[in-house]
Each structure stands twice: as C-alpha cells, then as structure tokens.
Amino acid sequence: MLTGLVNRSQFDAVLKSEVSRQHRYARPLSLIMLDLDFFKQINDSHGHDVGDQVLVALAGLLKRNLRKADCCARWGGEEFMLLAPETSLEQAVRLAEKIRGAIKHTDFPIQGSVTASFGVVEVHSQESVKSVMKRVDNALYLAKEKGRDRVSTGGLLTPAKQA
C-alpha cells in the first residue's frame, strides 16, 4: 500500500507464471533483488516516517526506470524485486547498474544520499522458482558482503563493479 508497488503474494504469482512461460518458450527471463544499504540507520536516525518517505521515493524511481513488461514489487522492509521478461543476464546487469546509479544520485527526503545493493540472475531452463529465489538472494548477499552499493550475479559475470 505504501509504495503502490505489487505486493509479495502478487509478485509470487507473476514470478510463477513467467517462469512457466520461460520453460515453455525458452525466452530469457531475469530477476533482480535489491536492498537499500543501511536502511535501519535511516529509521533509527530520522524515524519511520522519513524511512517511509524514502521507500515511496524509491518506488517512484523504480517505476520510472522500468518497462511496462517488467514487474516491480516491494518484497519486504527495504527489499524490492524486479522481474524482467525477455531480458538476458547481461541486459539485467545493465538495468541494475542503471538503477543503482539513479538511486545513488537521487536526493531522497531528509536523508539525502542512499545506496542499494543488487543481486541479478537469469532463470535457467527448467529451473524451479525456489532455486531462482535462492540464487538471487545469494547474489544479493554477495553484493553486500563485497562492500554494498554494487551489482552481483553471484560470480557468473564480472563487469567492473561486479562482486
């Protein structure tokens, strides 16, 4: 409700449907998970109202940077999911880098500067939703472990800022 994005249960349904479609037609499908870095500090320093304003501003930024075919959801807290049909891993990494840069250079309410970490994966042929989710979560964890404010594919691709 707060962000105006798809919720977790709606996203689950879209993800299952898109993964099934990918299995049927063997078309590229990528998943991006992003997490705002040190979001707890925003809530602790400025209060939850400011944290909410940051989330709303981020949701608007995400909507402006995605295609109509993409699905964007608030996954929980400060985590968001982006499902990109007809998008290869390389294209999804470019999209994640574009969004990462936009977030970093946006002046958010009260807080000012914010960064985010990204996990990016492409769905493998006949891969289960559970496996895709585990891989994207692991890729995000790696981005955080390598210093935050970066995009990670879990080591499958190694661009300049890649973890």
Automatic annotation (TrEMBL):
Enzyme class: transferase
Gene3D superfamilies attached to this UniProt entry: 3.30.70.270
EC number: 2.7.7.65
UniProt cross-references to InterPro entries, sorted A to Z: Diguanylate_Cyclase, GGDEF_dom, Nucleotide_cyclase, Rev_trsase/Diguanyl_cyclase
Domain GGDEF: 27-156
Domain of life, source organism: Bacteria
Family annotation (Pfam families): GGDEF
Reactions this protein catalyses: 2 GTP = 3',3'-c-di-GMP + 2 diphosphate
Protein name: diguanylate cyclase
Biological source species: Vreelandella olivaria
Taxonomic lineage from the root: Bacteria, Pseudomonadati, Pseudomonadota, Gammaproteobacteria, Oceanospirillales
